[in-house]
């Protein structure tokens, strides 16, 4: 096996949204950066594929709102730099039982952080959001900053800009070993590389990559059924008809969120999914065939989104990598400070791509990160993880 003679400042492993934006941030700062991806790009085997994701400030925790305040600016910066549109503002309708903790916390955080919002009443709901039913006892507030990110385009843009800044992207190069040290050695199926630091952003494969470094995180990989529902009257839920993205914080049949996006990427089809799935192995994703989530969604669609056919027309798959508290892991390896980990994005990480890229870049350069990363430390898992941390 040949060894690349070049000593990189950083090797980023995994070209999903987090790895691509980390590599982009490093190259933009003039660092000699290699981005390695196991599959031929683009691919649909991880968590970052598909045409759309929701972007929003609506969160329970204020730290996410503050991260998003900067992240909106970073998305706009990438759009300007590359001359492409990545974000379309639609508003995000948040609904939930008026007195529930899940709904009131999101609403209170939005108001406390002075995010632009509009509160809807039962009386004016249908004039603002036609073709949708607000369940009895539910409240509704619109996060006006919410909208759609064009996911595939965003991923390609981050990778293209990375290359424009001089970064080296090698796909179809699966990393099979990482040897820690002052200079880290990374071995792929094709070559051996060396770098001053390494960032691991391997999504559902994070623990497989961490194994040679002696660390395992409490991550659970879930297969998600990505369901598309057909409009009975074409155009009734289209983005151009001002239908927003939406989140239902909870419902009788499930304490898991249900979320949806207007029809856009597939004409006449609206994406509505449950914010959970069933455990799977990322190398055998489709062996998992549980569809109990689809039954929950069918019942929801038939009662609350009556303009859609209550059987999904298309079901695709994607994966979440969940931590026990659903907060991310953004930290240095406990034993090897020049190995940085971005993992456990728990089904809500896409919108943060540019800010996560910036923070992982700062960690890999040994800098003090520009946000307080205490909610994202590995230490919080002490006593939970499968090996000593
Ligand atoms: C159905 C669905 C809907 C979602 N909706 C939203 C949303 O509306 N808003 C939002 O903000 N987020 C959303 N998310 C979450 C978001 O998409 C993820 O948090 C994000 O894509 C995670 O990115 P990642 O880079 O960590 O992982 P990935 O995209 O999985 O990237 C990891 C990469 O590492 C590569 N890799 C792994 N092992 C190796 C190896 N050994 N060698 C080389 N390469 C390797 C993989 O092939 C992969 O390309 C959603 C996710 C899903 C599945």
TrEMBL record:
GO terms for biological process: L-lysine catabolic process to acetyl-CoA via L-pipecolate. Residues 9-363 form the FAD dependent oxidoreductase domain. Its cofactor is FAD. It comes from Neogobius melanostomus. Signal peptide: none annotated. GO terms for cellular component: peroxisome. Keywords: FAD, Flavoprotein, Oxidoreductase. GO terms for molecular function: flavin adenine dinucleotide binding; L-pipecolate oxidase activity; sarcosine oxidase activity. It is an enzyme of class 1 (oxidoreductase). Belongs to the MSOX/MTOX family. This is Peroxisomal sarcosine oxidase. Its EC number is 1.5.3.1, 1.5.3.7. NCBIfam families: PRK11259.1. Pfam families: DAO. It catalyses: L-pipecolate + O2 = L-1-piperideine-6-carboxylate + H2O2 + H(+); sarcosine + O2 + H2O = formaldehyde + glycine + H2O2. The keyword Oxidoreductase applies. Metabolizes sarcosine, L-pipecolic acid and L-proline.
């Amino acid at each position: 096996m040949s060894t690349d003679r070049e000593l990189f400042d950083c090797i980023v492993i995994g070209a999903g949204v987090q790895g691509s934006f980390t590599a982009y941030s490093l190259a933009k700062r003039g660092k000699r950066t290699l981005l390695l991806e196991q599959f031929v790009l683009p691919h649909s085997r991880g968590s970052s594929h598909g045409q759309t994701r929701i972007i929003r400030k609506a969160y329970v925790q204020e730290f996410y709102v503050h991260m998003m305040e900067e992240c909106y600016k970073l998305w706009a910066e990438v759009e300007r730099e590359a001359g492409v549109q990545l974000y379309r503002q639609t508003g995000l309708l948040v609904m939930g039982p008026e007195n529930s903790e899940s709904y009131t916390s999101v609403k209170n955080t939005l108001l406390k952080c002075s995010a632009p919002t509009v509160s809807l009443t039962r009386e004016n709901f249908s004039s603002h959001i036609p073709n949708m039913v607000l369940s009895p006892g539910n409240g509704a507030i619109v996060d006006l900053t919410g909208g759609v990110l064009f996911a595939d385009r965003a991923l390609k843009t981050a990778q293209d800009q990375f290359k424009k800044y001089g970064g080296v992207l090698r796909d179809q190069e699966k990393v099979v070993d990482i040897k820690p040290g002052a200079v880290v050695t990374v071995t792929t199926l094709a070559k051996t590389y060396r770098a001053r630091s390494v960032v691991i952003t391997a999504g559902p494969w994070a623990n497989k990559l961490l194994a040679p470094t002696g660390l395992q995180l409490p991550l659970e990989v879930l297969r998600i059924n990505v369901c598309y529902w057909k409009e009975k009257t074409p155009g009734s839920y289209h983005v151009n008809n001002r239908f927003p993205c939406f989140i239902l914080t909870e419902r009788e049949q499930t304490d898991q969120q249900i979320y949806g996006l207007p029809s856009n990427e597939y004409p006449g089809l609206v994406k509505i999914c449950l914010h959970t799935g069933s455990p799977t192995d990322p190398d055998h994703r489709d062996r998992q065939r549980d569809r109990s989530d689809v039954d929950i969604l069918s019942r929801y669609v038939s009662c609350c989104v009556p303009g859609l056919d209550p059987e999904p027309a298309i079901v695709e798959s994607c994966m979440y990598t969940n931590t026990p508290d659903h907060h991310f892991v953004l930290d240095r390896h406990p034993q090897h400070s020049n190995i940085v980990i971005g993992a456990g994005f728990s089904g809500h990480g896409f919108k943060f791509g540019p800010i996560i890229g910036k923070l992982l870049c700062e960690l890999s350069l040994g800098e003090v990160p520009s946000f307080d990363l205490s909610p994202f430390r590995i230490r919080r898992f002490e006593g939970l993880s499968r090996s000593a941390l």
